[in-house]
Amino acid sequence: MLQIESNQPKITQFKEKIGLPLSKSKISVLQINLGKRCNLACTHCHVEAGPKRTEELTPEVCNQLIEVIYKFPELKIVDLTGGAPEMNYGFKPLVEAARENGKQVIVRSNLTIYFESGFEDIPEYCAKHQTRIVASLPCYLEDNVDRMRGNGVYDASIRALQWLNKLGYAQDPNLILDLVFNPQVPHTEKFSLTPNQSTLQQDYQRFLREHFDVEFNNLFTITNLPIGRVQQHLQRKQLYTPYLQFLEAHFNGDTVENLMCRNELSIDYLGNIYDCDFNQMTNIPAKTRTGETLTVAKLLEAGRLDLIDEVQTAPYCYGCTAGSGSSCGGALV
Ligand code: SF4
Ligand code: SF4
After folding, report:
1. pLDDT tens per residue, range 68-84
2. Minimal CA–CA distance to 296: which of 32, 11, 17?
3. Residue 330 contacts by C-beta under 8 Å, 6 or more apart in sequence?
4. Residue 2 scores a pLDDT above 70
5. What spacing in Å lies between the alpha carbon of 83 and ligand 2's midpoint?
6. Is residue 317 a contact partner of residue 243, using CB atoms and an 8 Å limit?
7. For atom 4 of ligand 2, which residue has the closest CA?
8. More exposed terminus of the chain, fewer Cβ within 10 Å: N or C?
9. Sequential DSSP letters for 195-244
10. What is the atom index within ligand 1 of the atom nearest the CA of 149?
11. Which residue's CA is the closest to the ligand 2 atom numbered 5?
């Protein structure tokens, strides 16, 4: 057993657990975090986004990203996240560049943004450009959602889903609408794994159809990783180390093959490159085989995407490998 220096969790180093360096595979996904501006400030937010944050993409980095989208046909998916990606600079130019190049565009939306002044056109815009919408709805019950995301968020989310359905989302095969379930942040040592994704999807579908006439395509269950606001909360409750130990105790080696960090590049609003959004939030940059950090400008200069051999890992990687696993696309096995 190795002791990890930071926060002193008594857990096995992730790399030692999997027995090999976590290798990068062919890059096919570009996940761009457009910035920290968001109309909400959720308790489980690993980005610590909110209405007072001002960090967002610059025109220069946005143009470089557009060049990357044009230059690399092996990129199949452009995944836009934030903050609320719709609120941050570069949202529409990136959607349009990616769609022009035949890439699938994922917009990770909190749904409530559609009711903020200046953003009312977003649902129609997304439908017109056939973006896939992956929307947070951390529970199908109102109280749980409002406790995690703020009063009135559930009601606004339901109205947004009805709006998207009217535009053809979850009806037209080109208009995919997925929901994301995040468990409640733990308050005691009675931790539990994320529930079974397909069973929970059926529960969501039944409840939302019966009560609100809402349809969606897939439900993704995403584990709370102990970083950002979740880490602060766990540390306040002295649950940080026990939670990591719980995640490690439920390590499932079958998830490793499908970890999202293996085939994606995660980009921050400054154009720096990471192996995943979680490493971005904890400031662990991706490294080339010679140990250099990367930027979008350096990728363009090199003219290739395969500059990283090994994914940088951390204790919170156990959140992605516990039980059925977890990623931005839900369970892994
Ligand atoms: S909506 Fe998403 S980005 Fe915004 S605060 Fe909530 S979790 Fe964070
Ligand atoms: S946090 Fe998850 S996605 Fe990120 S490097 Fe670790 S295992 Fe990969």
Report:
1. 999 999 999 999 999 99
2. 32
3. 180, 197, 218, 219, 220, 221, 222
4. no
5. 19
6. no
7. 276
8. N
9. PPHHHHHHHHHHHHHHHH----SEEEE----SSHHHHHHHHHTT-HHHHH
10. 6
11. 313
